[in-house]
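Exercise (ungraded).
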Amino acid sequence: MSRTPRQSDRVNLEETTVLLIDDNPQSLDILSSIVQGFGVREQIRCMSGVAAKDIIKRRQIDLILVDCAMPDMDGYDFVRWLRRETGEPTSMIPVVMVTGHASQSQVAKSRDCGASFIVAKPLTPTVLLQRILWLASDERVFVQSANYVGPDRRVNNFGPPLNMPGRRHDDLSAHVGAAVEANMDQSDIDSFFKPKRVAL
Amino acid sequence: MTDARTFKYRTNLARKMSAPGGRTVADAVIKAEAGVERHRAAAMTSVHETLAALEAVAAVRGEGGQRVYDLAASMLDMAGYFDTGPLHGAMFSLCELSSRMIEADRWDWPPVEVHVRALRVILDDDCRDTEGSRAVLDGLAMLVRKAAR
């Protein structure tokens, strides 16, 4: 993931097609206003996971924003279907899930469904835009296995991007960077692998 | 153990966003926030209506826990696009409380009623973050912790 975006950075969503899914029409209106503010010209709105499945089969979509809690087919089941039942590249469309509250029973579903990000409310345009910018430079590998299909969930090991509040001292860096010390001697490296007698 | 396939990929979103053009982050956020603000009055009306429905359910202790959770989650969904200060904390607390009691199959109305009254007090006080509202939230958190035992 990239650094925190600067206010002067540019974001170009003009040519993207965004699918918005939420069963609450008021909430859908608000989401729609947000992505319009971001500069998205083409957005498709639908009010159920079932209707979204039909759209996905017919249209090329670049980004999906979906509410987690919906009747009939919730957001988790929709993303699971998208990741497992559609072919490439549709199955790899970035998905941001939006949730107000995740009940105990939904926690495992949210972890395993394959969403790119899950954003909890309160949701501000700044947070949503940051997630979209992260998606544009997402360095995670895509995983296809019997139990999980989606972006690598171990992203948390990397922590927030460099120079961002919340980074822990032992977070890994996705960027290796230039060497800061001289190379080790081969004998030193070998010594790491040689068994040594130790006193017990 | 089953085989897992892992691979790097570049999405259409990344490709299109890397093209020159668009607007600055600052401009995008300002325009989006202005768009959200246009919905504030209607959204808060909806929050008031949902709280009235919640009060009606709590008053007769009817319809069961799932209805309480659904109404609380609906309020949280709608108000979650705006800065509603302590109201958000109280709504989240009621969602957490009702969710835990449903999972444990141990429904108890009094802590729910306390939450509903707290929501009314906070909403009638224009969602102001005060010493009083913080004390209310502390009390609600204690109720949720007790329900989790």
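Further reading is listed at the end of the chapter. For now, observe: Chain A has a mean pLDDT of 84. Chain A is about 30% helix and 15% strand.
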